[in-house]
Amino acid sequence: GEDVEQSLFLSVREGDSSVINCTYTDSSSTYLYWYKQEPGAGLQLLTYIFSNMDMKQDQRLTVLLNKKDKHLSLRIADTQTGDSAIYFCAERSTSGTYKYIFGTGTRLKVLA
Amino acid sequence: EAGVAQSPRYKIIEKRQSVAFWCNPISGHATLYWYQQILGQGPKLLIQFQNNGVVDDSQLPKDRFSAERLKGVDSTLKIQPAKLEDSAVYLCASSLAQTGGTEKLFFGSGTQLSVL
């Protein structure tokens, strides 16, 4: 069945790089997404990657996709305290209802 | 551009009571979703509308949950009667259209429901 897994917690020091990992199961997924959720707020789209790409860079964010292993990662360079939040990986099916499947979320804590 | 509006922001009820949540999507967005987010988990899709039609309600507990989007714009989600395990944040999201392309979801801030 469809499943998206993430590690629960990550703690880094301000200025270091953060790497958040995700594994998914639906090999037919065309798009994979990263969302950020701050306390008391909804999810905000950070970036996405098309399945025929290996890497996508967007300012401080780098997304790496390993289709063979169904592994997705989000690297945040020069992590700031404002990056503290929960990060969700999501896969989207490319047929039927095109629904999103979200991971359990990784709570990132940035230490000053 | 106004975002996805949801109300109320918080709701506390006792079990077996009824509750309703309201969502107004971004203007022009044809697709509307309701998600349930239990503490410590990712959002789980409850129901998806395309305009005023239901696309997917396979995970909606239909014995107690109902949702409608009568005019293809705003939507309400109702729980009757509520159970303790319904305590969660209910998120509404919208997107321009349901396609195979890069469909971006825009989320509201959610309604936090506590069932006592």
For the largest beta-sheet of chain A, the strand count, sense and barrel status come to: 6 strands, mixed
Q: What characteristic shape of chain B results from the CA principal axes?
A: globular
Shape descriptor of chain A: globular
Distance between the termini of chain B: 37 Å
Helices of chain B, by number, come to: 0
Number of strands of chain B: 11
Percentage of residues in strands of chain A: over 45%
Note down, in words, how this protein is organized:
The complex is a heterodimer of chains A (112) and B (116). In chain A, the strands form two sheets. In chain A, strands 2, 4, 5, 9, 10 and 11 form a six-stranded mixed sheet that branches. Chain A contains no helices and eleven strands. The mean pLDDT of chain A is 89. Chain A is mainly β and 112 residues long. Chain B is globular. In chain B, 35% of the residues are buried. Chain B is mostly beta strands and 116 residues long. In chain B, the strands form two sheets. In chain B, strands 2, 4, 5, 6, 9, 10 and 11 form a seven-stranded mixed sheet that branches. A four-stranded antiparallel sheet of chain B has the order 1-3-8-7, with no helix packed on it. Chain B has strands at 5-7, 10-13, 19-24, 31-37, 44-50, 53-56, 65-68, 75-79, 88-95, 106-107, 111-115. The model of chain B has no long low-confidence stretch (mean pLDDT 92). In chain B, strand 5 and strand 6 (53-56) form a beta hairpin.
